[in-house]
Amino acid sequence: MASFLTSATGPMTTHFWGPIANWGLALSGMYDAAKLGPEVINERMSATQVVYSGLFMRFAWQVQPRNYILLGCHTANVAAQLNQVRRWGFYECQEHPETAPAKMQFLGACCGGAALGIGGLLAARKQIMSSMANSKSLPGRVTALAAHPAGPFYIHFWAPNFKWALSINNLLDYDRPVEKISLSMNSALTLTGCIFMRWSFVITPVNYSLFFVNLALSGSSGYHLARKVKADYIDK
User: Where exactly are the transmembrane stretches of this chain (predicted)?
Assistant: First the structure.
């Protein structure tokens, strides 16, 4: 027990509490599935979280110290959000059979395209990086960025930066009806954004993009959280 408490990923470190906070995403998906109807599901946000958590599963395996708690929570979140997308799809087919196929096709194309594009780039990164390193026409800053361990050819870049998609979703939903805002999901997103702002400075390599993306996430999710709390607990 003492060795666990003082370990590099033990409860005395942000390496422990950051991933623990991320369990809130998976638990919010499970809670909403159990307590809320499919009509309130934000299908775009749930689908985005599937891709986001898939990327972070790889990130958790690559980052040092390797973080199995982070891997576990994102694996659970992929399953929870896929279930939410499934529930939304069934609901749309029942309630809006004319438009449901087009909606599901568009959602699948967006998420599948993003996953395939990033996966293909990472798979071909060695050949691309080698070509860029040997090129005499590219500026030194460009080749240095390409070779950086948190650069665009590594999961350390794509996992945190894909988190911008979560904030973009929040901005697109700026006027979403409050009755369709998930209190649990936005609480989890706000909390994980706040904690990961700190976590970005204690991992190797230090990841500034992770800090800024979580700053945006905590702010945009906190906005929706404040709207929901105001409508449900203050204005009533």
Answer: 106-124
Query: Does the structure show a pLDDT above 70 at 4?
Result: no
User: What pLDDT, in 10s, does the model give residues 94-105?
Assistant: 999 999 899 888
Output the pLDDT for position 67.
79
List the Cα angle 14/19/20 in 5-degree steps. 95
> What is the domain partition of the chain in residue ranges?
1-234
Instruction: Identify the CA nearest to 56 among candidates 141, 183, 148, 166.
Output: 166
Residue type, 70: L
Closest alpha carbon to 52 in 26, 17, 31 = 26
Query: With contact defined as beta carbons under 8 Å apart, do 46 and 84 qualify?
Result: yes
Instruction: Report how far residue 189's alpha carbon sits from residue 28's, in angstroms, rounded to the nearest whole number.
Output: 10
